[in-house]
Request: fold
Amino acid sequence: MISLRGVFLIAKSVLIEAVRRREIYVIVLAASLLIGMVMSIDFFDIKGLTKFYRETALKVMGMATAATVIVLAARQLPREFERRTIYPLMARPISRLTFIAGKLLGVMFSAVFCFALFMLIFVFGTWRLGGEIPWGLFLQHIYLQLLMLLILATLSFWLSMLMNFDAALTVGALFYFSAAFASTVILYLYDSSGTLFRWFLLAVNYGIPQLTLFDLSGKAVHAQAWEPLSFSVMAQLTAYGLSFAVIYFAFATICFRRRPL
Amino acid sequence: MTDTTQPVIEACELVVEYGKGAQARRAVDGVSFAVQAGECVGFIGANGAGKSTTLKTLMGFIFAQSGGARIFGLPPGAVESRRRIGYLPEVALYYPFMKARELLELYGGLHGMTRAQLREKIPPMLERVGLGERGEELLKSYSKGMQQRLGIAQALIADPEALIFDELSSGLDPIGRHDLRRVLLELKSKGRTIFFSSHELTEVEALCDRVIMIHQGRIVTQKPVAELLKPLNLFEIRFADINGELPTEVKEFNPARQGSEWTLRLDDLERYTRALDALRRSGCEVRGARSLTQSLEDYFISLVEEARS
Reply:
């Protein structure tokens, strides 16, 4: 079955590669430049600038980390085949479940590493602008974003079992960007649709995770108007996010279990 | 430890196909063989004969359409059987952003070795494969030969009971091959079971107890090496002349000069004995005399040509 030590060892190898490759740093640098440009704009009063900075920074952080996770997760398996590193790895006494769980954990470790770099930039920027960070909402936002990244990682893993890297990357990215307005579009279409199409829309609505639920950036920016979410809401969001992650992970595992290497 | 009553590696009417329906291509077609504990068996065949496919099926990487395989009595890919096996893939490439030490820590760790065991085993293992001073370098700077040496180290790191090597000496220079042969002979003397495919037939000849030959997905022969290397009724004598002069009684055997020596090739025992006597009488220095045998390569080529025709 699953070997926890095996999972951690494989995850460590994924993290080592993510840290030693330059991609994450390039993404962080590009996003930081964007955030730096926002900071340099001087046409708001200082209070307005802090809010503008926080909002932009959180959005950019979220998008850049999501892009990193989709790329990392979608390429894990194709790259193992391309380099043929999968053979010496799978010749070890580990199950395929251990392999895929290790890869997923490694991607999540890399996401945390990327997020941590962004957080440092965010905290530094807020401090430079003299603003305060609403820690309660901010930490809740980070937690929910990590949950969203887990959904994206498991989905990208599954997609990479079904299609090649380029296609998995495209579908994963489309999924992430369309998820922001999918529920709004469904809401508009719902009222003007027939019964059958309504059922379809409902199925889509419940079948696709509503990624906007995991984004508290707006609330974190306007912290004066918002309290941190209650424990029960956080628990429900956790259950909601985890259920999608588990389903996608199960699909990925089933696909990988009988796949010739 | 190994149960000596059951084969370590066993294939029974193994059939493996690539593709589906009308496009299906049979890569392995009813292959059966067994490798006993402590045996060193070479698996040889031309490119595309089905060697790698068979080995991948034994490792559980690909699945057989019919027939079966067992490793230590367990189905291919069973975690427990892989615990006792060291495997070297056909093309060995390793994570370019890792160091050799880290890679061996990863593979050894997955084999259940403790940190203390890894600390103790990795430096001598790298030394053994000739990478002693390169353990802290990133693998992206490694040449193909170095990657292959590392591949051998990763296969041996957990001290497995059986070794399955796909294209044993691929990418190795002559020194690398020599080192590898030394390692394998050492493992053989320790009673490890070794099953490997190779295009280097001289290597197979030197190392193996038995050879399994595959052609177009089918086993064409499996015999002890000694049985395949049969005498050719050809004899060869190497000798040195006296002060550049070739005695007349030796000239009649038509010797050929090879560097500072002369070589005589004779096709019957009676002439061979007469030539040896003549050389002794004339005072020439005989440096070597042997009965020529058919090499594994000759045998392999004749079998493949026979199968083609």
